[in-house]
Structure formats: C-alpha cells, structure tokens
Amino acid sequence: MPDKIKNDPVIAMIGCGTISEIFYFPALRKFPAIFKNLILIDPNQERLNQLAKEFSISKTCTSYQKLLDHEMDAVILTAPNQFHYSIAVEFLQRKIPVLCEKPLAITIEDAKKMVDIAQNYNVLLLTNYQRRLYASYQKVQELLKRRVLGEPLEFSYLEGQKYSWPIVSGSRFDTKVSKRGVLLDRGAHVLDTACWWLGGKPKTVSSYNDSFGGCEAIAHVDFEYETCKGQIRLSLLGDLPCLYQIKCEHGSIEGDIYDFQNFWLKQNGQKKRLIKLKTKEKKYADFGITIVSNFINVLQGREEPLIKGCDVLESINWIDECYELASRLNMPWYENLEI
Amino acid sequence: MKERETVFVTGASGFIGGWIVETLFIEGKMDVRPGIRNWSSATRLARFPLEIFLCDVMQPEQIERAIDGATIVLHLATGSPEVIIQGTENMLEAALKKRVRRFVFLSSTAVYGLTAGEIDESMPPISMGWDYADAKIEAEKLCWVYHKKGLPVTIIRPPIVYGPFSYDWVVRFAEKITSGNWGLFKEYGEGICNLLYVSDAVSGIIKAATNDRAAGEIFNLSGPETTSWNDYTIKLNRALGLPELQFINQARSKSVAIFTDLFKALAKLILKYFENPIKTIYERSRYARIVMKGIELKIKTTASLSELKSYNRRGIIVDKKAREILNYQPRYGIEKGVELSVQWLKLLGIACPK
Looking at the partner chain, which of B23, B44, B54 has a beta carbon nearest the beta carbon of A217? Predict the structure, then answer.
C-alpha cells in the first residue's frame, strides 16, 4: 500500500489543454485548499498566463523537468497522449502518484511499463476512463457478469460525431509523433467498455480504418468473445446513432452511449423497460469531481481507487492489435483521381 | 525543367479544400501544404501524413509563416463577409510579398445573382444583397488590384459542388430525403441545378493554377450535364434505395415553408434568451433530448422559402472558356457522382434508410 499523504496534497497539472480547463479545474476548485497550491505546467507560456489569470493560480512552469525535484505530492497528467508514458514514468520513479487522463498510453508496451513501475515503486497510478463510472454502464456490466440474460451473443457499439473538441494545440494531429486516431481517442473508452463488460479481451476478426498513413478518423472493428460476435464503429467525421446493443440468449440490453443513468432492458417474454438509476453526478462535468475527489481520497488513504492503470491494460492491448491488423476501408471515391 | 510546385491551400479543412489536399497527396506530383483555422477541424486531413499549418486568414503573421516557400496559393478559406474580404486581402498581400507564382481565388457562381439563361464569364457580377455573394464580389475586386501590382491571380467560379464530404449538398440533402418530410417540389424544383462533382472542381482549380495562360483570367466551372433540382433529388433518393418521392404542390410547399420559417425564428429567439436552462434540461432529461432532437430534425428537413426560391433559378453556367484554355474536361456525370456520394454516406453510416 503506497504511503498516505496527511495534509492537503500539492498537485501539479501537467498539460493545460481543453480537458484541464473544462474537466479538471472545475473539479479541483471544489477543494479550495488544494486548488490554491495547484501548479500548472505547460510548454505554452501564453496559455499558462491565460489560465493562471482566469483561475487565480500563482504557480506555473513551462517544463515539468524543472519541477521534478521540487516538492509536490501528486500529478494529474493531461498532456497530449504521446507524452503520457515518458512523463508518467519520471514521476512514478520518484514515487509521485499519477492520475493519467485516458488513454493511459499509446501502446501496450508503454502502458505495461507504467503499470510495472507503479507496482515496483509502490506508487499510485490511476486513470480516467470515465465511462466505467457511469451507473448505467456499471449495471450493464453487473447484468452481463451475472449472466442474467444468459450468454451474450451479439454486441454492437456505434459512436460517431463530427469532431469538435476545442483543442488548443495541434499535437494530437502530429503524424510524425503518432499516427493513431479515433481508435485510440474514442476507442480508448469503447474498447475498454467492451473488455470490461464481456470479461476480457476479445479476439479481433477484422479491423479497418480510413488512414492514408496518418491518424484515422473512421475505424471498424469486428470481434468475437466466447459465444459473442461484436462490431464497433467509430467515426470523427459524421454522426452515428451513438448506441450500444447487446443481444443475449434470454433478452437484450441497449442504451444511448452518453446516458450515464438509464438503459433499456428486454427479457424474453417481457416488454422492453427503461432501467433508471440514481446517480450523484447530474451532468458530465460532475464526473471530474468524482475522479478528482477519488484521487485525493486515495492519496490520503480514505478510499480505494476507482480505476487503476492496470484495469485498462487489456483494452490497450486490444487497440494495439487492431492497429496491427488494420487494412484500409474501401473508399472508391479516391480511385482514379486525375487532374 | 520546372521546379516541383508547393501548393498551399487555405480552408483546407473545408469540403473542396480537403479534396484538393487529398488529391494532390494521392497523385504525388506536387507538394501540398494544408492551412486550417483551428485544430478541431483537422480530423479529415490528419488521415494523411502531412504537416498541417495553422492559418487563420485574419492573422497576417500566421499567413506569412504558413505560405513561406509555397509556389502556388489556393485561397479557399471562407467565413463571414469580413473574413472573405479582409482575409482575401491578407492572403493577397502575403502572396505578393512572398512572390508566389500563382494565386487562385475560389469565388462562386453566386456572383451572377439570379441571372437566367446561359452565363459565361463575360456576365458582370450582380449584387443581390446576399452577404456571401457580395463579399465574393468585393474579394474578386481586390484580386484584380493585386494582379495589377504584379501578383499573377486567377479566379475560379464554381457552381454547386457536391460529392463525398459535402455536408450542404449531400449529407443534408440525404437527411432531408430520408426524413420523410421531403418531396419533389412542383414548379419550385424544376429550376436548373448546376452540379459539379468535387473531383472535377479540383481538376479545374489545379489546371487553372498551373496553366500560364490562366493568369489574370476568370473561369467558370461546370459539370458535364445540367439537371433540375427535382432530378437530382430523384437520383439521390434512388441511390439511397428509398421508395419514390411524392410531388408536393406549389401552394402547400409555400405555406409549409412560411410556417417553418416563422417557427425557426421563434426557436432562435427562445434559444437566444434561454440558452443555459435549455442546455441543462437537454443534458439532464432523456425525454427532452428526444423532443429537442425531433424538433431540430423537423426544422432541418423542411424546405424554407429561400430554399424553394433557390431551387427555381434558371441560370445555366457555361464553362467553355475553361475547356478551351485549360483543357478542362469534367468526367463525372450526375449518376456517377451521386453513386460515389452515397457510397461515402454509407461508409459514414449517416443518412441511410432505417
């Protein structure tokens, strides 16, 4: 068990992009004693100045290396995905706990090393795979685990929305650093959910995407897990229905992927009914409070971690596999182009 | 031997700009450099291993950095009238300073207003009081000012460009058709629909950018055939595999359009004053989400009065000059263009029959 932190921890936020601003800052503000000592780290001085002014934060720094040996109790890592591994490792090796935004890492090799280092150094490595916190998703997982509807036979998860996340820098699209797109971005949630619900990593039957050597915007994955055949469709270019559906031997489950309170349950011979769950979170931003307060409480030894780094290794492994097996989708409109 | 061209494209995250970048990358004969206004719009381009440049045409410093080393600038970025006019001037100024070999400005056949009959480049632009078209007319004037200063400029006037990635003329049209609210408009829908498949538009633009005789010229582009809006709707509907559409008579389509316009104005007003409470209700209530999405769909898939009027235009765009000087030869008839567009829609999983 890692050492407990008795006082209010000094937390460094590494990476000050949109996710920090709209998800973590409002959550951290619920802990004024911690928020007043928050350290912001980002290479963009202009961005630091803007956030420091807006949120009245006095400590900022353009490089995390400069702060490695300074006093801090924990790190919230929201830097671009490709830097999660290298930054997290430096802090974990100094026994500084890390809460890492999803995806934990961009390859399974990096993710495993992060988890191993956390174990070897006896330090906390938590991560934010938010959908694991949705009451509806937790209930679905429980129903599937208990085989309430029998064996799952068909699984479908469609998530597509034209990308409109107000990102501050272009590092997500720097194909020199990483050529991974929607499968790593949205897929981190979706493939993790599939692993978690089904009980393990499925076998990839086929994997297609629309990459021409860069970050794919559409990904199609077909898979099998024991008796279940599944499909995942992800898109950043257009709107898909954003639904999940699981058909089982004795009924089915379906829901809106963003609905954290409700889903539909149909048991054979009965009418489809809406399962409504009560949650303390009323809107998406409230999950920031849940994840941050859990991190703080775990640091102080008052709670068990909600999502540990090791919990998501199977899905990262699966994402890697999907990239390895990927072929390009059939896109006849790019054939015979002539000027 | 001519040095390899480096083509800088503004508005590269847009429909046509994206296609230019993709086509040049796939063809591989020129280096291409996409410029975009904000990073959230980079998803389509990021599928290619290209360096993407942030280039807000209202930010002269960004422009200078982005076009440094480019031999051709294709200016497709659009936006508000201010962005169209001032943005074009900023681009022209930077291109002149950097001595680019060719500056191509993408204008529009909207500058011809409601002119009927055959329309070639000799037809003078007409201000109809439409913000977009008037801004394009002003931007064209600026192009000629800079051409006189020594920057070789070419202006392209495309009509309605459609194809994969077209949200205006493919996605939204398909959504309208699949909604069940749409039909064939008697009288209104019989106007001329000057359709140009996007690959043909790209071909025309690149030919104009690389042809020495094109400097100082304006070119209309058009598809290999003209059609009516009703005919385009029928072809798209058929390619989507839907049952035949019914005709809606003129009086009914007009009255529905007037009611929809009023309802739309009211909805805008409500949203203006109660945006936050509405957002909260939307986020918290599943039923509210269903109702609001239903209303939004109904508004989006019912023809407005201005739409009906635009479907009744009678001008035919003539591209004889581009064919003669640029050897421009559009290859995609409407059947083929619609087929490819629907294949794209199906890949995206959008606007397909339930």
Answer: B44
